Amino acid sequence: MMAANIKKGILLINLGSPQSTEVRDLRKYLDEFLMDERVIDKSWLMRALLVKGIIVPFRAPKSAEAYKKIWTSDGSPLIVYTQKLRRALQEEIEEPVEIAMRYGNPSAEYALNKLLKENPSIEEVIVMPLYPHYAMSSYETAVEDVKSVYKKNKYSFKISFVPPFYKSPGYLEALAENIKPYLNQTYDQILFSYHGVPGRHIRKSDVTGCHCLQTENCCETDSPAHAHCYRHQVRTTTRLVTEILNIPDNKYGISFQSRLGNGWLTPFTDIRLEEMPKEGIKNLLILCPAFVSDCLETLEEIAIRGKETFLQAGGESFTMIPCLNTNPLWIKAIEGYVRN
Question: Is this model's pTM higher than 0.85 or not?
């Protein structure tokens, strides 16, 4: 039904998933994802040679097998959890809520058109990329994609964007409450595993041109660069949430997963999972705060392959803490972001 008096709409944007676990659908999805210049920041020709000639033919069959391990009867976990998030938020607010995926379906254009068609009097769409931290390959590309669609279609409504929420009280409170029940069990360390990014992306995003990754403590030295610095922001999230939970410094660590090559942020999660048992860390809690919805990178890369790596290296217990998904405090936090 059309809503005659609705003035605002909400658009939640997540990463996306292939349509199925068939190799052809993985090829299509990976091609769209990796040909994004904010993901692989090389010239179009170099990117095309790399992606279409090497990466996609090699990775598509492996990714298809990985997706098969986590695929549900309703489809991709990322899509399913994002749909559940939309429904949960819609129960709390009267403004219409739609979801979009940066890659795959539904697209930002489809979602914006749907909002306008069903709410012709709409005057503003508040866009919330579901990424706590700023990175070229996540938050920035989602924002720029929406801007491109908006410009192309010349919509009459205005758009505004929720900024990265890595240190906002709502997100931190929800994250802390999500972790808290797991702290009752015996653990040697809790590992905060964030999605990796190339160091050059952070340097490119440095508005000062001379701060990021220049010294070991650059993330702790105040700078305008921090507004776009992924490493600073994930360190800030970790520090703040461990302070809320009173976790001592020697009981947690940070690592980076999903690397695609050299020059990415370290330490690498897969390497740390091999090293930890040798350091006496036998009982591990692990979570992935860069993701708000469980997906391939959490369910397969960490909960399946990561666990196997850790246990084979001599670990005794490995507990994956789920993403926020539809945590009630997370829903409340989103409601606050889009209202403010």
Answer: yes
